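Record type: monomer structure entry
Structure origin: computed from sequence
Chain ID: A
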Amino acid sequence: MKQLPTPHQVMRKGYAAVRSARSRLDSLVLVPPSPDDWPRVAADHLSLLDGRTLNVCVTVPDDLTAASASLVLGGGSSPVVIPLTLVQRGDGRVEARGTSVVDLLENVRADSPPVPAGMRRFLLEAGQWRLSVVFTDVRGQERRFALAAAPRLMPDGPTLPEPVRADGTYCRVIASSTGRAYLSLGRDHAEAEIVSVDIGWSQITLRGRLVNSPAEACSGDVELIRRNGKVSRTLPATWQGDVFTCTVHTADFGASGSKEQIWDVRLRRPRGRSLKLCRRRTDVRSPGDVFRMPNRLLTADDGTALRINPYYTPVGSLAFRAALIPSGS
């Protein structure tokens, strides 16, 4: 007789399906077809491995003898042109390769990561930049091709090939409805990102950061919400700039009883919607499987003991499993 899956296995399988679907949607932007979507060439390789270093490799069409090549971002009167290097392969065909750094123009600061030696940085405004490749022959004649997106790297691997940036911005290689490759840059919505979870013997200290919010919006308290119930607890948070700290004690979980309860954690703001405390600004695809935290007994001054297990859900939200330990156990 075939054994039925446990509820936990069903949930994990469902989350995996959601992650896979979201990954496919993230790679597709529904923009109307552009008049220059054809002719086109397919990229052999096209990636942003660290969220800012653009790598491209395109095979030169057989009917062309190229003297130079370039990757063109955007169109109109002010495109961004990235030079490519022509390299002959062992089979006699020629490839156009290039590596450069792309950053969001509005996010450039004095403490921005340095550009590696020998590499150029290109500053782009937020939006979707369509990609083209231009080959120039020895007579100076140009042939322009729309660049078709390459297959996604590691679609289901443990890490994301295009990680979310810690500064709240993003840069992704996406595709239009016709398969045209685009570079998408911008800034995400406000998020409450977990920086650390320090588990002591009598308390847990949460440290987080409010991302993509102005200075005047950096305020609020942490809220514990019991799942599948109407019980909640509001815990004061102290702020230093966009970083907040909150201490969670045994009593904050109330009379949980000996049956394990699950509590979700949110940042309640005076203005704006509440935000889940998450760990998402990382290249880890499934934070719940990687960032594991131990079970611990928290003991209050009155001798009350609480079995606690902080953990991340498959999508990266912080939650607590908590249950009171009966006295005398």
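Annotation 1: Residues 18-29 have pLDDT under 50 and may be disordered.
Annotation 2: The longest strand covers residues 94-104.
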